[in-house]
TrEMBL record:
InterPro entries noted in UniProt: ADH-like_N, ER, GroES-like_sf, NAD(P)-bd_dom_sf, Trans-enoyl_RdTase-like
Name used for this protein in its record: Chaperonin 10-like protein
One Gene Ontology term of the molecular function aspect: oxidoreductase activity, acting on NAD(P)H
TM stretches of this protein: none
Family annotation (CDD domains): enoyl_reductase_like (cd08249)
Stored PANTHER family: HYPOTHETICAL OXIDOREDUCTASE (EUROFUNG), ZINC BINDING OXIDOREDUCTASE, PUTATIVE-RELATED
Organism field: Cristinia sonorae
Source organism, top-level taxon: Eukaryota
Annotated Enoyl reductase (ER) domain residues: 9-349
């Protein structure tokens, strides 16, 4: 089969490799669509292991073969899932290929009104958002969870989504509008984004949007909200976490950070803590990530299973909306040259935003509020 595989020179190329066989409690997926995440590009250009690893995380397609013991699925079912790909120091499978194998209970049923392209945007980033809100920030989710929660004491809790028009930010917004206190009150949602995205975020239930380029935005958020109780830093670069900490209520709290070491600890309020965890913990395997061993955590894997079961609960549509799709031309063979070029391998804030930086083709414009999707 054709697959995107890491190659010498810190890149990846299309190679012919054997079709994988599903083991016990696994399914093989005939991949239709793949969605790109910054981590896919980052570890292709900065590989943590020798060449020869299949790249890619988010996939959608049809069940092609059942491994022994699988009863959840039938051949032909439409599913989405995510794999770790070439991001770890230890061997982990990737998904940017014609076929991929995943554990049966870590797949999501695609509702009939959702396309493969849309479904491919969901698995990794929506799980990251759910982990941020419902594990790290300890907010009660709208689905069963292995974690216990202290009931929310505030009558109208406030949550800030920093960089709400990223793929992650959109999923945090989608999940946040479902949040309710034990008394049934909704959370008040605030966000930072470019002013051009104001209407989109207001439609998602955000109470007020602040321009992230305005140096006064932390003061304005605190004034409008009365003080933030929870926040998700969807960029976690430079002074983003420190600025978010200035919006918190008296007594401080916790910020869920999406990256570990790219944000400065300087000027973070003493009563506010930024916490990080890798989405890969949700796969339930020991992982060598960023040169550190992350041990398997069965409770995080159980959380993934419950979350994906909840996403699969409707036959018509997901309970949260997929990301908007930018369908990229050229299939797997153009991912590195086009998609990874747009994503880059450095900080999001360092991406060039000039419309013609990467050429005049419409699919090469800077990324804003969209997920890059290719068809396998």
């Amino acid at each position: 089969m054709r697959a995107l595989v890491t190659a010498p020179g810190n890149t990846a190329t299309i190679q012919d490799i054997p079709v994988p066989e599903p083991g016990a409690n696994e399914i093989r997926i005939k991949v239709h669509s793949v969605a790109l995440n910054p981590v896919d590009a980052l570890y292709t250009f900065n590989p943590p292991a020798p060449p020869g690893r299949v790249v890619g995380s988010d996939i959608a397609g049809t069940v092609d073969k059942l491994g022994p013991g699988v009863t959840l699925w039938r051949v032909g079912d439409r599913v989405a899932s995510f794999l770790q790909g070439a991001t770890s120091g230890n061997e982990r499978p990737g998904g940017f290929a014609e076929y991929a194998v995943v554990e049966a209970d870590l797949a999501i049923a695609i509702p009939k009104e959702v396309s493969f392209d849309q479904a491919a945007t969901v698995p990794l980033c929506s799980l990251t958002a759910a982990q941020a809100l419902f594990i790290r920030l300890k907010i009660k989710p709208p689905f069963p969870s292995p974690f216990t929660y202290v009931p929310e004491s505030a009558q109208s809790p406030t949550i800030l989504i920093y960089s709400a028009m990223t793929s992650l930010g959109l999923f945090v917004s989608e999940l946040s509008k479902l949040l309710r206190t034990s008394a049934g009150n909704p959370y008040r949602i605030f966000a930072t984004a470019s002013p051009k995205n104001l209407d989109k975020l207001l439609q998602l239930g955000v109470e007020k949007v602040f321009d992230y380029r305005d140096p006064e935005w932390p003061r304005k958020v605190r004034a409008a909200s009365g003080g933030i109780h929870y926040a998700v830093d969807c960029i976690s670069e430079g002074d983003s976490t420190a600025n978010i900490s200035q919006t918190y209520k008296e007594g401080g709290g916790t910020i869920a950070c999406i990256r570990k070491s790219t944000w400065s600890k300087d000027n973070v309020r003493e009563d506010v803590i930024g916490i990080y965890s890798s989405v890969w913990v949700g796969l339930g395997k020991d992982i060598i990530y960023n040169n550190e061993l992350i041990p398997a955590d069965p409770s995080w894997r159980e959380f993934t299973v419950e979350f994906y079961r909840w996403l699969s609960s409707s036959t018509d549509r997901f309970p949260i909306s997929p990301n908007p799709v930018r369908l990229m031309p050229g299939g797997l063979g153009r991912i590195v040259a086009d998609g990874f070029t747009l994503l880059g391998s450095a900080k999001v804030i360092d991406r060039p935003m000039d419309a013609n930086t990467h050429g005049s083709e419409p699919w090469m414009k800077p990324i804003s509020g969209e997920k890059l999707v290719y068809r396998a």
